[in-house]
Amino acid sequence: MRSRHAWLPVLALTLSATALSTAPASSAPPTDTAQQTTPRTTPPRPATPSLREEEQYWTADRMTDAVPTATPSAPRAHTDAATPHAHTDAVTPHSTPPPGTPRPEHFAGHPTVGTFFFDSKPLGGKSTFCTGSVVHTAAKDIVLTAGHCGTGLQKATHRIFVPRYVSGKPAASQPYGVFPVTRVYIDPRYVSNTKKPVSDLDLAFTQTAPNSRGKRLEDVTGALTFTATATGYTQRVTVLGYPSAEKVNPRHNPIRCPVTTQRLPGYGQLKMACTGFYGGVSGGPWIKDYDPTRGTGKVIGATGGYNGGGNDANDDWVTYAPLFGKDAQALFNDAAAHRTVGARPPYKTLVLPDFAPAVWKHAVGMTAGYFTGGSPGGSRHMDLIVRWDDGRVTLYQGGDTTHPFTAEYQLAPSKSIWAKAVSLTTVNTGGKTDGLAVRWTDGEMTLYPTVDPQGFHGEKQLAPPQTALWRDTVQLMTGGRFTPGGNRDDLLVTFKDGHVSLYADLATNGLSDQTQITAKNATWPHAGQLTTATVTSSPTDDVIVRWSDGETTLYPGLTPQALPAETQLQPPNSPWKNATLVTAGAFTANTTANDVIVRWADGHVSLFTGTDTKGLHTETPLT
């Protein structure tokens, strides 16, 4: 258990009659297994303390006395244990940070970020607090924090949120007032301070009552924007929190640290390095597009996750946060609607079989299709073929919505002829499975009408070696149905001089039926990735283009006549300029190929499901 992130007091199952009403809570301690999917619900509580009573209770001395709990041997908050446990400031790092590790800035704070106070003195524990941030909702009463903070809040008394907390002042004199916590929302699959995959779910939301002036929280403080659509793990964010250790933060001012994040390998979590993140910072926001004057921006994570938010050595300079995705969005939706958190399906970290980002840096080509059986509208999802820079070719068998790939087949070993392939794309010529069109370094073009776990079958030469056109002038290509009717064996090709051509019906015509769609121009040389999708209901396939500046556009219903009007999916200078490989397919629903897999420059892989004309939506990490 990480000492500076595990602030949860020991709590009894039954609290005093002054306890506040709680969010849904599990009737038994959650486990870290796939079977734990039931909603957290508890019977209604007795009458809650009034706001005046809370302000009288939280004197300056009581608030100053609040400290984080911290011993590896301390019972976890979701247990029924009632034994008092020790506290420590834990301010000594266990290892020296690398040279150049940034240091945080102590500052006056923002009203959008504050602390929680709650009491467990009936059981002998001291008052405790974490960090929280106000996130925008229509109800204007929701605060984001860590799940392991929320589990303590669920069963505590005298629960309040204090925006821009000022040490030394009682609750009644805090500059923005205090807001009683009336409800807590936590994913039922989460287990406090675990090191297992469900640590990805370490977030919670609290619902608050108005302050003593009758004002709703967000009307007083403003709010951050909860954002579950961050693209990738390499993010520029500012991390905020309230360290409570007296030795490092005697005034209990918040800290902030601008950092560039990376992925915590094997988890759906961000990792950052900055010294001074001691007890009290759990639940603190990781803010993208941070406005240091107003304290606003997009919150894409909150301090917590693996081991409560830090490494096994308990180093103060290593901190983690779950990267918000579809599960976080679902919990936010429940909190924003003041809705009971319902049952959830078993949690599975979506990781491609046996691969990590370091390996995926070596992926140089990928394409989706039905290579192991199935067809559009059937029960099987699309497969994925990946070509590696050492000549290997791998086939990943399509799975289901929770785990998109279930098996792996090697189609070609390392140092094979496939090291000389330049690009490959999926086509369907009417065979039992989809096939591939392949361009080689020497200008040869080949068609494999059928590809399956046993390999590549029926090779047909479309252009001989040393064909200058295909060797020297072609830039990108993607297969699909771009002429009405027939098979998905048309080939869209972009050239280095900017012109774009369509080759219709490869199985019948080879490369003889060429139609130029655009003439030489200065725009299309900037196309970086090309993939076929079925985003719209057009009778022909759509095409997604990732441009060199990060702009990503959709061309709906492409035909030989002309390029259709484009739809922007990502703006210029977006993170998509780091999208090294892009392919679309039917990976989560077997009706349309509107899911997009991206291999980023740093090697991690993401899945964007349900792409439509409004854009790319929730990102799910695959590595």
UniProtKB/TrEMBL annotation:
Q: Where is the composition biased (Low complexity)?
A: 22-40, 74-94
EC number(s) per entry: 3.4.21.-
Q: Which GO terms describe its molecular function?
A: serine-type endopeptidase activity
The record's listing under InterPro entries reads:
Glutamyl_endopeptidase, Peptidase_S1_PA, Peptidase_S1_PA_chymotrypsin, Trypsin_dom, TRYPSIN_HIS
Pfam families recorded for this chain? Trypsin (PF00089)
- Tell whether Hydrolase is among the UniProt keywords: yes
Recorded protein name is Trypsin-like serine protease
Protein source organism: Streptomyces acidiscabies
